[in-house]
Amino acid sequence: MALNLCVLVSGRGSNLKALLKASASGRIKSQVVLVITNKLTSGAFEICKKRKINCIYLSEESFSHGLDYIKSFLTLLKNYKIDLILLAGYLKKLPAEIVRKYRNRILNIHPSLLPCFGGQGMYGLNVHKKVIDSGAKISGVTVHIVTEDYDSGPIVLQKTVNVKDDDTPESLSLRARKAEHILYPKAISLFETKKIKIKNQRVIFN
Ligand code: GRF
């Protein structure tokens, strides 16, 4: 089934680009119908402009009451008939109300093999630096379901990435990003074609 996707981005947006490419090429049936960013500097604006996709700036800072922010967020998701929300480098915790309302329909991509190297403050090059400092030979990327806690929801898919002896956080991040661009569309096609069940912490697709 083709799903209406909403992608949340704070930064560069290379995962957003990869998702759009996967959709345009037919690798996934779903369409990105809405992009939300909490940063005016996000690359998402440019990416969306080229492809005529609605990119909306939504930041809690623009609202005097948190409840109005949440209401606006939920209204957007409803108006665009969003089936699946994808966090793609979104550096803001989603309000619990949204997580509850879209339970098991919000995914995040993280640049490590969770549950290792995740949690608050673990994003971007920080993650890859910690991986290199740990001496790990293998790292990877994880797509997981978003819950109320950082990086700890049930794992949907993972892909390993080798750590080379001469890797820097930058070189490892490039290799990991390539893996992310393959893995995120794969996770979406699972949601398109399978029924999901969560048993304890394990995601099972039937
Ligand atoms: C990715 O590495 C992703 O794992 C993390 O944030 C980064 C976003 O990169 N959550 P981009 O903006 O998609 O290029």
Q: If you had to describe this structure to a student in words, what would you say it looks like?
A:
By secondary structure, this protein is of the alpha/beta class. Helices cover 36% and strands 24% of the residues. It contains six helices and nine strands. The protein has helices at 14-24, 44-51, 66-79, 96-101, 125-134, 169-193; strands at residues 4-9, 31-37, 55-57, 84-87, 106-110, 138-145, 155-162, 196-199, 202-205. The strands form two sheets. The chain has a seven-stranded mixed β-sheet. It has a two-stranded antiparallel sheet with strand order 8-9. Helix 1 (14-24) links the parallel strand 1 (4-9) and strand 2. Helix 1 (14-24) runs parallel beside helix 6 and helix 5 (125-134) packs across helix 6 (169-193). The longest helix is centred in the C-terminal third of the chain and has 25 residues, at 169-193. 5-O-phosphono-beta-D-ribofuranosylamine binds next to helix 1, strand 5 and helix 6.
Summarize the structure.
The protein is an alpha/beta fold.
Give the cofactors and ligands: 5-O-phosphono-beta-D-ribofuranosylamine
Q: For the residues shown, what is the average pLDDT?
A: 97
Order of helices and strands: EHEHEHEHEHEEHEE
Number of strands: 9
How many helical stretches? 6
Strand order of the largest sheet: 3-2-1-4-5-6-7
Uncertain segments of ≥5 residues (pLDDT<50)? none
Helix % is 25-40%
- Which oligomeric state applies? single chain
Shape: globular
- What integer value in Å does the Rg equal? 17 Å
